[in-house]
């Protein structure tokens, strides 16, 4: 047997090359027609720290009178906290039940009309009364957190002769 050589048909090769070229061109046109559309927008990002402050105060308790004739003293702690450490603030104190900072009074819990004069100060010499105006409130300025001592003086000279429990409530206002 004799081997026969197959002859290539030039039209078949051209036909295959033509089909391949058409396929590539068709693929290119399809890929350009299936590209996705796009859209953009902005994401706004923010944060805030509101200017907020809190105030608390411990009880000012003079305790029980010992009968020794000595004025009674006590301390309390005023604590402030502000979210912004640069916030300027001032603490003021009303006159309690007496309504005046110059003549604060402890009142009897059992006998109406029995009072005992006292006052609160921001110094240990009991000369600077804590009050309710810019000039007589705590001149503390600014701080993220702060504690101050309040000094109380209960003079025995003004004490009532009637044994009882005496109380008052002073409203502390923090302005910032």
Distance between the termini: 113 Å
User: Helix fraction?
Assistant: 10-25%
Mean pLDDT: 81
Q: Specify the CATH architecture of the domain at 53-167.
A: Sandwich
Query: What's the total count of β strands?
Result: 9
How much of the residues is beta strand, in percent? 25-35%
Structure explained in plain terms:
It is rod-shaped, with a radius of gyration of 44 Å. It has a domain at 53-167: Immunoglobulin-like (Sandwich), CATH 2.60.40. The N and C termini lie far apart (113 Å). A hairpin with a 6-residue loop joins strand 4 and strand 5. It contains 1 helix and 9 strands, in the order H-E-E-E-E-E-E-E-E-E. With 176 residues, it is an alpha+beta fold. The strands form 3 sheets. Strands 1-2-7-6 form a 4-stranded antiparallel beta sheet, with no helix packed on it. Strands 5-4-8 form a 3-stranded antiparallel beta sheet, with no helix packed on it. The chain has a two-stranded antiparallel sheet with strand order 3-9.
């Amino acid at each position: 047997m004799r081997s026969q050589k197959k002859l290539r048909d030039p039209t078949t090769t051209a036909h295959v090359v033509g089909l391949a070229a058409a396929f590539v061109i068709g693929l290119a046109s399809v890929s350009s027609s299936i590209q996705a559309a796009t859209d953009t927008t902005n994401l706004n990002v923010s944060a805030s720290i509101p200017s907020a402050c809190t105030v608390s105060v411990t009880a000012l308790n003079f305790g029980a009178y010992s009968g020794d004739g000595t004025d009674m003293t006590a301390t309390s702690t005023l604590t402030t906290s502000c979210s912004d450490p640069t916030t300027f603030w001032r603490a003021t104190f009303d006159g309690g039940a007496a309504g005046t900072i110059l003549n604060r009074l402890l009142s009897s819990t059992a006998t109406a009309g029995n009072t005992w004069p006292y006052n609160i100060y921001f110094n240990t010499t009991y000369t600077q009364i804590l009050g309710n105006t810019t000039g007589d409130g705590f001149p503390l300025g600014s701080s993220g957190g702060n504690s101050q001592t309040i000094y109380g003086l209960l003079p025995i000279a003004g004490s009532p002769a009637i044994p009882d429990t005496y109380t008052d409530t002073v409203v502390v206002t923090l302005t910032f």
